[in-house]
Amino acid sequence: MVGQPDTATVAAARAGDPAAVDRLVAGYLPLVYTIVGRALEGHADVDDVVQEVMLRVLRNLGELRDPAAFRSWLVAITVRQVRERFRGRPPAVPLDEDLRDPGADFTDLAITRLELSGQRRETAEATRWLDDDNKELLSLWWLEASGELTRDEIVEASGLGRQHAAVRIQRMKGQLETARAVVRALRAPRCAELTGLLGAWDGRPGALWRKRIARHTRDCMQCVPAWQGLVEAERLLAGMALVPIPAGLGSAIGHGSLFSGTATAATAAAQAAPLNIAAKAGVPLLQKALAGVLATGVVAGGGAVVYTYNTPAEPITTAAAVASQPPPTTAAAPPPPTPSRTSPSASRKPSAKATSVAPPVTRSAKKGAAVWKFAGSKAALKDVGASWYYTWAVHNNDAPGPAGVEFVPMIWGGDNVNDATLKQAKAEGDTLLGFNEPDLAEQSNMTVEAALAAWPKLEATGMKLVSPAVAYGGDTPGGWLDRFMKGASGKGLRVDAIALHWYGSDFSAASVNQFLGYVDAVHKRYDKPIWVTEFGLINFSGSPKYASDAQKVTFIKGTTAGLQKRSYVERYSYFGLPAVGDSVDFGLYRDGDSPTEAGKAYRAAG
């Protein structure tokens, strides 16, 4: 966060002050470059995406109402541009190691310019082994760990809820740790088996080889030290500076590529002047080129200032009315507000779908949904036939439900154990969900001892208490849940039911019995009713990341049928109801009446 302009600079830039635009661009360009560079690791498109981001930011700056929100808005635009590049025009194939240019490759640049060594260097090299979607998240989390972004900014930029973002970050960190071990194993003296295994490897980092090498190192006595002594990544990244911008980026923009989409000759002439004069005067080309966007009138709307530079210290400004300038055709919108649902009759033409009779909605007392804020949540809860739902909070302010659908509050973590929160939870209903994934550092992150110490306050509400929901290992002797349940029994604490989470990376039909077997094993161990509050098919550490529609439908049909038959299963909720933003590949509803194929299967369940 050091050196970034304040809100007064943002406000002045929005009003058309060229010097403020200069400071804004100079202050935030390293942040944008670092996010894009790490997300598009090893590709030739980094400079192009950075240029697109900055152009879109300046073109839409007049639409930013709150200058204090500028950085969050900027990061959100950056992430969207990265996603557009992956979706619309796949990045180039990474170069072979021997052909990499240290001045162009982002990891090499970071290692060289930040003078990384030891485990910091290993961590930087390990980023090449991450899946593409994890690289995007890594680019944000890395900046959080180094003090440049906040968790709130990551949540807003990624489009994820706070809890979902925490889960994704934890899984990404697990993949990063695996990749660090792979980097170590490849640098260390190799055993004969690993040498033979690598005979078919083409030298390019990838998910398949990451898994193969990691699997070998875990089982090999000679190679297993690669996993030992790994310092926590956050400790390695704390205080690490942003990666300096390569000189080639400014030079490329100086040749005018930034303005290839402008509309008129007058605009082009106004842009060319600051570029040429800035080049002669030695002013940083990138900053002056971007500042020239003011000439198009797209920063503050009509009436912006047109200006050129003689020297860095003496801008020559002239007032010019540019109200007749047509709006830019490639402008990006600021982060979208919460969408409002429109009438189907106003937005859709009559179709066979609209006139057909929908299958009857099945409402089981067991069937629920894990919900975060999205347009149409109330209608979707009704359409899917949920009897209950939760939001990982003690209230449902962001996702109010329809009449007749029970909301179940949750005490998410230790910080939420206070009189005011517990009072609110008690006002919401009769059942209280315990802490969310306390066994994960990126979730509620509680020790068994801390959870046991807080539990009497939950018990004092008089509500039915469902145990903390561990991320994994609920049936493992000596695991987090096992120690919690033994501790509760020893202290005479009440736990009325067990909460479980389960995610499968095997997308075959076998996943149904894998999941149900886990549920059975946990019930057998504790002999208590079961609440499955999150379950689904997501591969957090490999590829493909998500199951196909057919695989999800098979899984949902099989698992819900099994859960319905098990008398000891009191409630279950698929993860999750929204299929928007980053959840489009696994969620159930795009809006209030548009279920995905998985949503249709879940609607029919129960």
Automatic annotation (TrEMBL):
What's one Pfam family here? Answer: Glyco_hydro_cc
- Keywords for the protein's UniProt record, in alphabetical order: DNA-binding, Sigma factor, Transcription, Transcription regulation
Q: Name one GO molecular function term.
A: DNA binding
Composition bias of kind Low complexity appears in 340-356
Q: Which domain of life is it from?
A: Bacteria
> What GO biological process term is on the record, naming one?
DNA-templated transcription initiation
| Segments of this protein annotated with the region Disordered | 321-361
Q: Where is the composition biased (Pro residues)?
A: 325-339
Keyword Acetylation in record = no
**Could you tell me which residue ranges the Asl1-like glycosyl hydrolase catalytic domain spans?**
382-602
Residues forming the RNA polymerase sigma-70 region domain are: 24-88
Is-annotated flag, keyword Transcription?
yes
PANTHER family for the chain: ALKALI-SENSITIVE LINKAGE PROTEIN 1
What family name appears in the similarity comment? Answer: Belongs to the sigma-70 factor family. ECF subfamily.
- Name of the protein in question: RNA polymerase sigma factor
